[in-house]
Amino acid sequence: MKKKIARLGILLFLFPFGVVSQTLDEARTMYRAGEYAEALPVFEKNLKKKPKNPSLNQWYGVCLYETGDHAGAEKYLKIAAAGKIPTAYRYLGDIYFEQYRFDEAAKYYTYYTEYLEESDDEDENEDSEYYELRSAQAETGMQKLAKVQAVTVIDSLVADKADFFRRYRLSAESGSLHDYAALFGEKIGDASPVYLTQRGDKTVYAVPNEDNGYELVVRMRSGSDTFGEAEPIEDLNTSYNENYPFLLSDGTTLYFASDDEDESLGGYDIFKTSYDRYTEDYDEPEALPLPFNSPYNDYLLAIDENMGVGWFASDRFQPEGKVVIYIFLWEEKPEYLAVEDSPELLRRARLASIRETQTADADYTKIIEQIRRIPTERPAANSNEIYFIVSDGIVYTDLSQFRSEQARKHFLKAQEIRKSITAQENELQRLRKKYAAGTDRTATAARIETLEKKLEALYPQPEAHEMQSRAAELSEQHK
Question: What average pLDDT score do residues 460-467 get?
Answer without folding.
Answer: 87
